[in-house]
Amino acid sequence: MEFLRTDDSCFVNLPDYHFAANYLTVxxxxxxxxxxxxVDEGPKDAAPILLLHGEPTWSFLYRKMIxxxxxxxxxxxxxxxxxxxxxxxxxxxxxxTYQRHVDWIKSLMLQxxxxxxxxxxxxxxxxxxxxxxxxxSERFTRVVCANTMLPTGDHEPxxxxxxxxxxxxxxxxxxxxxxxxxxxxxxxxAEVIAAYDAPFPDERYKEGARQFPLxxxxxxxxxxxxxxxxxxxVLSQWQKPFLTAFSDSDPITAGGDxxxxxxxxxxxxxxxxxxxxxxxxxxxxxxxxxxxxVVQFIADNR
Length: 302
Hints:
By secondary structure, this protein is an alpha/beta fold. It has helices spanning 66-71, 98-111, 124-135, 159-170, 176-182, 190-197, 207-215, 225-235, 256-263, 282-300, and strands at 3-4, 22-27, 33-41, 48-52, 75-79, 89-90, 117-123, 140-148, 242-247, 273-275. β7, α3 and β8 (140-148) form a beta-alpha-beta unit. α2 (98-111) packs across α3 and α3 (124-135) crosses α8 (225-235).
């Protein structure tokens, strides 16, 4: 598998991102081997919080949350998905599949021997993380879903997603930082926008970001539809604590929290919340508030 590796010089002096880089090689069921970067902060003997980002962000998205979670005594693991951040970036779009993304994060989980996991997932972090929780449920103790979903292709995607899908495939230069800025309620600084652009020195590095929208199951016969349906069967019997913390200003995932609360037993009795004045990337708009929600959720569900 051919891949690119963003030079370390691209990640110098990022605003409020001072975490050490950690690396390991991950495998997948198709024989691919790539290097993934992950943040690993807090006491190593503490139960881990696994923070999974989505499209087209990287672990930088969680920089406001990590210190709060660590201060509360938790170990925090925040990987960069393959194709993003400091992780390797295959150069062929065909090398990116939904299953491979699941496999790559599962490989990281197994190598770090993560158990008693609290999953915090947003955007594609949920499409990957909820599959992992359903398929390897004994490793997970709690779940926090924020602006995410687990589609099976059995329902028509909304207009907002259709517009995003079309844009992502047709735009000549994929404007990573500005896309994230446009999906926030707050206006990001030039330095923060540049930090989101940092992993992608040129368009060759963006094949994963380009491919991700096409991997979302939007038809019943999608290659990932059956496995997502199987995951929903597990989630429909999930009794462990499950919290939704969606934002009030995200047209892409609006209503997903109500669906999860209806279908997942573990949501019953939890203090579900709506993060006010936050867009799709609520970690950017209201990261501190979301971190406090996570800390309280864990404290309430020991």
